[in-house]
Specification:
Blueprint lengths: L2 E9 L2 E8 L2 E9 L8 E7 L3 H6 L11 E4 L8 E2 L14 E3 L1 E3 L2 E3 L1 H17 L5 E6 L2 H15 L2 H12 L4 H31 L4 H38 L12 H23 L5
Parallel strand pairs: 1-10
Antiparallel strand pairs: 1-2, 2-3, 3-7, 4-5, 4-10, 5-6, 8-9
Protein backbone atom coordinates (compact mmCIF):
# COMPACT_ATOMS: atom_id res chain seq x y z
CA UNK A 1 0.00 0.00 0.00
CA UNK A 2 1.34 3.39 -1.02
CA UNK A 3 0.76 6.19 1.52
CA UNK A 4 1.74 9.62 0.23
CA UNK A 5 1.56 13.10 1.74
CA UNK A 6 1.86 15.96 -0.75
CA UNK A 7 2.59 19.33 0.83
CA UNK A 8 1.07 22.27 -1.03
CA UNK A 9 0.08 25.68 0.39
CA UNK A 10 1.65 27.55 3.30
CA UNK A 11 -0.53 30.13 5.08
CA UNK A 12 1.15 32.02 7.92
CA UNK A 13 2.72 29.18 9.93
CA UNK A 14 0.46 26.45 8.55
CA UNK A 15 1.84 23.93 6.07
CA UNK A 16 -1.13 22.26 4.38
CA UNK A 17 -1.13 19.08 2.31
CA UNK A 18 -3.19 16.19 1.05
CA UNK A 19 -2.83 12.55 2.05
CA UNK A 20 -3.39 9.70 -0.41
CA UNK A 21 -3.52 5.94 0.01
CA UNK A 22 -2.92 4.05 -3.24
CA UNK A 23 -3.43 7.36 -5.09
CA UNK A 24 -6.90 7.82 -3.55
CA UNK A 25 -7.43 11.05 -1.60
CA UNK A 26 -8.12 10.47 2.11
CA UNK A 27 -7.90 13.83 3.85
CA UNK A 28 -6.14 17.17 4.11
CA UNK A 29 -3.21 17.56 6.49
CA UNK A 30 -1.77 20.30 8.68
CA UNK A 31 1.80 20.74 9.90
CA UNK A 32 3.64 23.50 11.69
CA UNK A 33 5.73 25.18 8.97
CA UNK A 34 8.51 26.03 11.44
CA UNK A 35 8.95 22.44 12.70
CA UNK A 36 8.57 20.38 9.51
CA UNK A 37 10.27 17.03 9.16
CA UNK A 38 12.19 16.61 5.87
CA UNK A 39 10.67 15.24 2.69
CA UNK A 40 11.54 11.55 2.48
CA UNK A 41 10.07 8.08 2.98
CA UNK A 42 9.62 6.91 6.57
CA UNK A 43 8.36 3.76 8.23
CA UNK A 44 5.20 3.91 10.31
CA UNK A 45 4.69 2.18 13.63
CA UNK A 46 2.58 2.30 16.79
CA UNK A 47 3.77 4.10 19.91
CA UNK A 48 2.38 2.56 23.11
CA UNK A 49 3.55 5.09 25.68
CA UNK A 50 3.79 8.84 26.15
CA UNK A 51 1.40 11.74 26.56
CA UNK A 52 -0.69 11.23 23.44
CA UNK A 53 -1.00 7.50 24.15
CA UNK A 54 -2.29 8.20 27.67
CA UNK A 55 -4.64 10.87 26.35
CA UNK A 56 -6.21 8.70 23.64
CA UNK A 57 -6.23 5.17 25.04
CA UNK A 58 -9.54 5.51 26.92
CA UNK A 59 -11.50 7.32 24.23
CA UNK A 60 -14.56 5.39 23.06
CA UNK A 61 -14.55 6.49 19.41
CA UNK A 62 -11.77 4.09 18.41
CA UNK A 63 -12.86 0.86 16.79
CA UNK A 64 -9.85 -0.77 18.42
CA UNK A 65 -7.13 1.35 20.01
CA UNK A 66 -3.67 -0.11 19.53
CA UNK A 67 -1.37 2.86 20.03
CA UNK A 68 -0.55 6.19 18.40
CA UNK A 69 0.66 6.17 14.80
CA UNK A 70 4.31 7.20 14.82
CA UNK A 71 6.57 8.28 11.94
CA UNK A 72 9.79 6.47 12.74
CA UNK A 73 13.49 7.05 12.07
CA UNK A 74 13.23 10.78 11.34
CA UNK A 75 16.78 12.21 11.42
CA UNK A 76 17.51 14.05 14.67
CA UNK A 77 13.82 13.92 15.69
CA UNK A 78 11.69 11.59 17.76
CA UNK A 79 8.06 11.10 18.75
CA UNK A 80 6.72 12.41 15.42
CA UNK A 81 3.08 11.34 15.45
CA UNK A 82 -0.20 11.48 13.59
CA UNK A 83 -2.71 13.02 15.98
CA UNK A 84 -5.76 15.34 15.93
CA UNK A 85 -5.14 19.09 15.95
CA UNK A 86 -6.68 22.21 14.46
CA UNK A 87 -3.93 24.83 14.74
CA UNK A 88 -0.23 24.78 13.81
CA UNK A 89 0.65 25.81 17.38
CA UNK A 90 -0.59 22.36 18.48
CA UNK A 91 2.00 20.60 16.32
CA UNK A 92 5.76 20.28 16.69
CA UNK A 93 6.73 18.12 13.73
CA UNK A 94 3.62 15.98 14.02
CA UNK A 95 0.88 15.77 11.37
CA UNK A 96 -2.84 16.39 11.87
CA UNK A 97 -5.49 15.16 9.39
CA UNK A 98 -8.66 17.09 8.61
CA UNK A 99 -11.59 17.34 6.21
CA UNK A 100 -10.98 20.89 4.97
CA UNK A 101 -9.11 24.14 5.58
CA UNK A 102 -10.26 27.41 7.12
CA UNK A 103 -7.74 30.24 6.94
CA UNK A 104 -4.66 28.77 8.67
CA UNK A 105 -6.56 26.05 10.58
CA UNK A 106 -7.82 22.60 9.61
CA UNK A 107 -11.39 21.44 10.24
CA UNK A 108 -12.89 18.24 11.69
CA UNK A 109 -9.48 16.84 12.52
CA UNK A 110 -10.62 14.16 14.93
CA UNK A 111 -13.19 12.70 12.51
CA UNK A 112 -10.56 12.39 9.80
CA UNK A 113 -8.08 10.98 12.29
CA UNK A 114 -10.35 8.12 13.35
CA UNK A 115 -10.93 7.03 9.73
CA UNK A 116 -7.22 7.25 8.86
CA UNK A 117 -6.22 5.52 12.11
CA UNK A 118 -8.34 2.46 11.36
CA UNK A 119 -6.87 1.99 7.88
CA UNK A 120 -3.24 2.34 8.94
CA UNK A 121 -3.60 0.27 12.12
CA UNK A 122 -5.21 -2.59 10.20
CA UNK A 123 -2.13 -2.69 7.95
CA UNK A 124 0.32 -2.51 10.83
CA UNK A 125 -1.52 -5.23 12.73
CA UNK A 126 -1.26 -7.55 9.73
CA UNK A 127 2.53 -7.50 10.06
CA UNK A 128 3.18 -5.56 6.84
CA UNK A 129 5.90 -2.94 6.55
CA UNK A 130 4.03 0.33 6.19
CA UNK A 131 5.72 3.57 5.15
CA UNK A 132 4.76 7.09 4.15
CA UNK A 133 6.30 9.22 1.43
CA UNK A 134 6.34 12.95 2.20
CA UNK A 135 7.04 15.27 -0.71
CA UNK A 136 6.36 18.69 -2.19
CA UNK A 137 3.52 18.68 -4.68
CA UNK A 138 4.86 18.51 -8.28
CA UNK A 139 7.56 21.02 -7.50
CA UNK A 140 9.95 19.86 -10.20
CA UNK A 141 7.29 19.38 -12.87
CA UNK A 142 5.81 22.80 -12.24
CA UNK A 143 9.21 24.39 -12.59
CA UNK A 144 9.75 22.63 -15.89
CA UNK A 145 6.31 23.65 -17.16
CA UNK A 146 6.89 27.28 -16.25
CA UNK A 147 10.23 27.26 -18.02
CA UNK A 148 8.88 25.64 -21.19
CA UNK A 149 5.81 27.88 -21.40
CA UNK A 150 7.87 30.92 -20.63
CA UNK A 151 10.03 30.12 -23.62
CA UNK A 152 7.08 29.39 -25.87
CA UNK A 153 5.03 32.47 -25.00
CA UNK A 154 7.64 34.93 -23.87
CA UNK A 155 10.01 34.96 -26.84
CA UNK A 156 12.43 32.82 -24.85
CA UNK A 157 13.31 30.45 -27.66
CA UNK A 158 15.26 33.06 -29.61
CA UNK A 159 16.89 34.32 -26.41
CA UNK A 160 17.97 30.77 -25.56
CA UNK A 161 19.55 30.40 -28.98
CA UNK A 162 21.40 33.68 -28.41
CA UNK A 163 22.73 32.28 -25.15
CA UNK A 164 23.99 29.22 -27.00
CA UNK A 165 25.80 31.52 -29.43
CA UNK A 166 27.76 32.95 -26.50
CA UNK A 167 29.14 29.48 -25.80
CA UNK A 168 30.20 28.78 -29.39
CA UNK A 169 33.74 29.17 -30.62
CA UNK A 170 33.34 32.33 -32.74
CA UNK A 171 34.98 35.69 -32.64
CA UNK A 172 33.16 38.51 -30.87
CA UNK A 173 32.19 40.08 -34.21
CA UNK A 174 30.76 36.78 -35.51
CA UNK A 175 28.76 36.25 -32.34
CA UNK A 176 27.24 39.73 -32.53
CA UNK A 177 26.37 39.18 -36.19
CA UNK A 178 24.59 35.91 -35.39
CA UNK A 179 22.67 37.53 -32.55
CA UNK A 180 21.48 40.30 -34.85
CA UNK A 181 20.31 37.69 -37.36
CA UNK A 182 18.34 35.88 -34.66
CA UNK A 183 16.76 39.16 -33.51
CA UNK A 184 15.67 39.85 -37.09
CA UNK A 185 14.15 36.36 -37.29
CA UNK A 186 12.27 36.97 -34.04
CA UNK A 187 10.97 40.31 -35.29
CA UNK A 188 9.74 38.74 -38.54
CA UNK A 189 8.03 35.91 -36.64
CA UNK A 190 6.18 38.39 -34.45
CA UNK A 191 5.14 40.40 -37.48
CA UNK A 192 3.81 37.29 -39.25
CA UNK A 193 1.92 36.29 -36.12
CA UNK A 194 0.24 39.70 -36.03
CA UNK A 195 -0.77 39.28 -39.67
CA UNK A 196 -2.29 35.89 -38.83
CA UNK A 197 -4.18 37.35 -35.86
CA UNK A 198 -5.57 40.18 -37.98
CA UNK A 199 -6.61 37.74 -40.70
CA UNK A 200 -8.42 35.62 -38.12
CA UNK A 201 -10.27 38.65 -36.79
CA UNK A 202 -11.32 39.80 -40.31
CA UNK A 203 -12.49 36.35 -41.39
CA UNK A 204 -16.03 36.19 -42.81
CA UNK A 205 -16.06 32.41 -43.29
CA UNK A 206 -19.25 30.67 -42.21
CA UNK A 207 -19.93 27.50 -40.29
CA UNK A 208 -18.06 26.07 -37.32
CA UNK A 209 -14.62 26.58 -38.86
CA UNK A 210 -15.33 30.27 -39.44
CA UNK A 211 -16.66 30.69 -35.92
CA UNK A 212 -13.57 29.01 -34.44
CA UNK A 213 -11.24 31.10 -36.60
CA UNK A 214 -12.81 34.34 -35.34
CA UNK A 215 -13.40 33.27 -31.74
CA UNK A 216 -10.51 31.08 -30.63
CA UNK A 217 -8.85 33.88 -28.66
CA UNK A 218 -12.00 34.90 -26.70
CA UNK A 219 -12.74 31.22 -26.03
CA UNK A 220 -9.26 30.60 -24.65
CA UNK A 221 -9.50 33.80 -22.59
CA UNK A 222 -12.85 32.72 -21.15
CA UNK A 223 -11.47 29.27 -20.32
CA UNK A 224 -8.55 30.85 -18.47
CA UNK A 225 -10.91 33.20 -16.59
CA UNK A 226 -13.12 30.28 -15.53
CA UNK A 227 -10.07 28.30 -14.40
CA UNK A 228 -8.84 31.21 -12.25
CA UNK A 229 -12.33 31.73 -10.78
CA UNK A 230 -12.54 28.02 -9.86
CA UNK A 231 -9.06 27.78 -8.34
CA UNK A 232 -9.09 30.99 -6.30
CA UNK A 233 -12.79 31.59 -5.55
CA UNK A 234 -15.34 28.82 -6.13
CA UNK A 235 -13.35 25.83 -4.81
CA UNK A 236 -12.50 27.81 -1.64
CA UNK A 237 -16.20 28.64 -1.09
CA UNK A 238 -17.12 24.95 -1.48
CA UNK A 239 -14.47 23.91 1.05
CA UNK A 240 -15.64 26.61 3.47
CA UNK A 241 -19.28 25.50 3.27
CA UNK A 242 -18.38 21.82 3.68
CA UNK A 243 -16.19 22.63 6.67
CA UNK A 244 -18.91 24.81 8.19
CA UNK A 245 -21.48 22.00 8.06
CA UNK A 246 -18.94 19.19 8.67
CA UNK A 247 -19.52 17.49 5.32
CA UNK A 248 -16.88 15.11 4.07
CA UNK A 249 -15.10 16.73 1.13
CA UNK A 250 -14.34 14.75 -2.00
CA UNK A 251 -11.08 15.37 -3.82
CA UNK A 252 -11.89 18.61 -5.65
CA UNK A 253 -10.15 19.06 -9.02
CA UNK A 254 -6.95 21.05 -8.73
CA UNK A 255 -5.69 23.08 -11.68
CA UNK A 256 -2.00 23.47 -12.38
CA UNK A 257 -1.79 27.25 -12.10
CA UNK A 258 1.97 27.10 -12.61
CA UNK A 259 1.26 25.96 -16.16
CA UNK A 260 -1.82 28.11 -16.73
CA UNK A 261 -0.52 31.49 -15.56
CA UNK A 262 2.20 31.89 -18.24
CA UNK A 263 -0.51 31.23 -20.83
CA UNK A 264 -2.75 33.86 -19.21
CA UNK A 265 0.11 36.35 -19.21
CA UNK A 266 0.75 35.72 -22.90
CA UNK A 267 -2.94 36.25 -23.70
CA UNK A 268 -2.93 39.49 -21.73
CA UNK A 269 -0.01 40.55 -23.87
CA UNK A 270 -2.18 39.96 -26.94
CA UNK A 271 -4.88 42.14 -25.39
CA UNK A 272 -3.22 45.24 -26.80
CA UNK A 273 -3.56 43.80 -30.30
CA UNK A 274 -7.25 43.12 -29.73
CA UNK A 275 -7.75 46.69 -28.51
CA UNK A 276 -6.10 47.95 -31.70
CA UNK A 277 -8.43 45.76 -33.79
CA UNK A 278 -11.52 47.17 -32.05
CA UNK A 279 -10.38 50.77 -32.60
CA UNK A 280 -10.13 49.96 -36.31
CA UNK A 281 -13.64 48.57 -36.35
CA UNK A 282 -12.55 44.95 -36.90
CA UNK A 283 -15.13 42.51 -35.59
CA UNK A 284 -14.01 39.41 -33.74
Amino acid sequence: MNIRLERDNVINNSQFGKLYIDNVYQCDTLENASTLIPCSTFKLGLRTSGGWYDKEKDKKRYKSFRGIIEIKDVPDRKYILFHPANKPSELKGCIAPGTSRSNDNICSSRLSYYALYTQICDLLSSGKNVSIEIREKNKENKGENKMVLGKLFGGGAIKSISNVVDDMQFSHEEKEKLKLQFEEIESKLKSKQMDINLADAKSTAGGLSGFMQRSWRPLIGMSCALAIFWEFVLSKIILFICGLFHYRVINLPELDMGTLMPLVMSLLGMGALRTYEKTKGIKK
